[in-house]
Amino acid sequence: MLAFVIGRIPIPCLLALTLTAATIQYQTLTQGIIEKRISVVHNTNRDRERTLGDLFNEAGCAGNRLTEQPIKHTTAPNLICVMPGEMDSIILTGAHFDFVDRGKGVVDNWSGASLLPSLYQSLKTVRRRHTFVFIGFTDEERGLVGSKYYVEHSSGEDLAKIHAMVNLDSLGTSPTKLETARGDKTLANALATVALNFKLPLNVVNVHQVGRSDSDTFQDRKVPSINIHSMTNETFPIIHTSRDRLQAIHMDDYYESYRLLTVYLAYLDQVLDAPQ
Questions:
Q1: Is the pLDDT of residue 17 over 90?
Q2: pLDDT digits (tens, 9 = 90+) for 220-268
Q3: Residue 70 and residue 85: Cα distance in Å, rounded?
């Protein structure tokens, strides 16, 4: 059995702020919508990418805001949804939609990918300071292919505009967890601030030793990144097995992860690059 590193998140001085729904604007979708979207699972990566596109359209990201990024030797492209903001600095949220064909790949990682349209829908209610980019990455399971292609085909100037990369990988098997072994400390502290103020569960479980995720691709290029998951010693054995099915998701935990991520992204929009 792997022994993950479990710890507590240092609480920053930012906690002097009192954060409420009145100070951070967003829309909360119902748990029924979140559960419906994760429940639409297909058995091929191409079908999963098409379904993700349908969910983005349903959430309001359509037309020239939603594009495919084709990649040679993959069965499905990256899928990119853009929410223009007042600035060209970017908050990027990503999750891979491909899966290992042992089980349904709901935990790893339809749980992350199917949340992307809901996060877009929750944030689009007001004009944002930052440009938000939501990406469904292809072929993470084959060596981070989609995220590597995206980074390698972005100029240094474009990468410098990404002030936060929030990666979602394998949510819903337990309350929300945070990887800090390589994660950006400012982004981790901001997540802790939101979790404490909104009384949503959050713990540190470092899973970096068991494999890399798409956040590492950005971290390797010095882009501030954070990986959010739900893995523990008890739940990790689900991954890449026949147990990775919808029944492995604890829907209440999954919905709380959605709620935390919604407020977190809205909070990052306020505090990153804020005038001094």
A1: no
A2: 999 999 999 999 989 999 999 999 999 999 999 999 999 999 999 999 9
A3: 25
Q: Are 69 and 77 in contact (CB under 8 A)?
A: yes
DSSP-assigned beta bridge partners for residue 226: 166
Q: Which DSSP string do the residues of 210-260 spell out, in sequence order?
A: G---HHHHHHTTT--EEEEE---TTTGGGTTSTT-SGGG--HHHHHHHHHH
Task: Look up residue 199 and give its two tokens.
Answer: 């009384």
**Domains present along the chain, CATH in parentheses:** 5-271 (3.40.630.10)
Question: What's the longest Cα–Cα distance across the chain?
Answer: 51
200 pLDDT more than 70:
yes
136 strand-pairing partners = 79, 95
Fill in the amino acid letter for 162: I
How far is C-alpha 45 from the geometric centre of its chain's CA atoms? 18
The whole-number pLDDT of residue 208 equals 66
Spacing of C-alpha 60 from chain mean position: 18
Is this prediction's pTM over 0.85?
yes
Both structure tokens of 158: 């474009």
Closest CA to 162 of 112, 226, 97: 226
CA–CA separation, 118 and 262 (whole Å):
9
